[in-house]
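Here's what a typical entry looks like (TetR/AcrR family transcriptional regulator):
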Amino acid sequence: MVRRNRAEMIEDTRARLLAAGREAFTRLGYAQASMDDFTAGAGLTRGALYHHFGDKKGLLAAVVEQIDAEMEARLSAISDAAPDQWEGFWGRCRAFLQMAQEKDIQRIVLQEAPAVLGAVSVEEQQHCIASMRDILRRLQLKGVVRELDAEALARLVYGALTEASLWIARAEEGTERLTQSLQTLELMLQGVRVDPDR
């Protein structure tokens, strides 16, 4: 039998608690999920949860951070696989809205996290806006997006995506809202694109 070192055991415990927390928060919501749901789901004690995350709120924050990182990786993969930068940008925007229908993102990131942890941190917002601004600037340099203020444009697009994703997540059946949001967003973004026929 292969013996694991302490660092591997710590990482394994943390990963099991994150997985149990994610499942419980998705299924039950923050208020209804109990410490026993997390520890029993992970086969661990409350002491392990307190040691790694402090409390239930700390576990929620860690789960949100994990989901955010996964979302960013998925969005980056879409950009990287796109045939050109405009399709990559549009694909990222479209996927962000589609993610609002995934149960864990919908329940944890868009519903529970704002209620329990407060609005998205200013630091996180600034990171997202800066990333979008950089993408838009590259598109401007390529002559794909009009010469508008990239910071203002990034803030407007980010705001629209954020608000639309919350609107989609609040619906019992968000498919219609997703379709409406995608159609409207495409029209909005075409307004900032340089006409390729000119």
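The first helix runs from residue 6 to 28.

More examples are in the samples folder.
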